[in-house]
Amino acid sequence: MDDVRAALEPFAEIARRLGWDRLDDDDMALGDHVVEAPADDIAPGATYCLMVGAFRRAARLLDELEVIGTRAVKLAGDYTFEGEVRAVVFKKSGAVRYVVEDDRGLLLIMNAEQIGFIDELLDKLPVITKEDGEP
Fold first, then answer.
1. Which residues in 6-70 belong to E strands, given as ranges?
2. Burial class, 78, CB count within 10 angstroms (exposed 0-12 / middle 13-18 / buried 19+)
3. CA distance readout (Å), 83 to 64, 88, 90, 120
4. Are 79 and 94 spatial neighbours (Cβ–Cβ below 8 Å)?
5. pLDDT, tens digit, for every residue of 69-128?
6. Sign of CA dihedral 11, 14, 16, 20
7. Structural domain spans, the chain
8. Which residue from 20, 25, 27 is spatially nearest to 59, judged by alpha carbons?
9. Which CATH class is domain 68-124?
10. Strand order through the sheet with 107-111
11. CA 16 → CA 10, 11, 13, 25, 57, distances in Å?
């Protein structure tokens, strides 16, 4: 995982500095070519091209990878589910899905509205002091 982060970080940093990480999914700028290099090893006159969208994907992926290994809970629905985030998946549409594994080895795929990261939820709980009420 460290190798993936190391490879993505320079691209993600460029996206953040230039604001490309904040572009909407349907923004036409995502298709703009920003880096072109000769690719004569593929074919005479061929060119490698990197688009704004590639830099944006690197930034998004790097941000999402940070949650792998964290504890999560299903926030809504008819049943409860708690486990560890094992993977982050991007659908073709760009939507993010989280794969969470519970203690039994059962996997559940959740979207951003369904998942709650336990550390973040705990941080939002009010702290009760002796002045607030009974210990």
1. 33-38, 47-51
2. exposed
3. 17, 14, 20, 15
4. no
5. 989 999 888 899 999 999 888 888 778 889 999 999 999 999 888 888 877 666 665 655
6. negative
7. 2-63, 68-124
8. 20
9. mainly beta
10. 107-111, 96-101, 82-90, 71-74, 115-117
11. 10, 9, 5, 16, 11
Residue 5 carries which side chain, given as an amino acid letter? R
What's the rounded Cα separation, in Å, for the pair 51 and 30?
7
Question: What does the pLDDT average to over 40-48?
Answer: 84
Six-digit token string for 102: 């519970």
> In this structure, what token pair is assigned to residue 1?
């995982």
Whether pTM > 0.70 for this model: the answer is no
Q: Strand (E) positions, 3-133?
A: 33-38, 47-51, 71-74, 82-90, 96-101, 107-111, 115-117
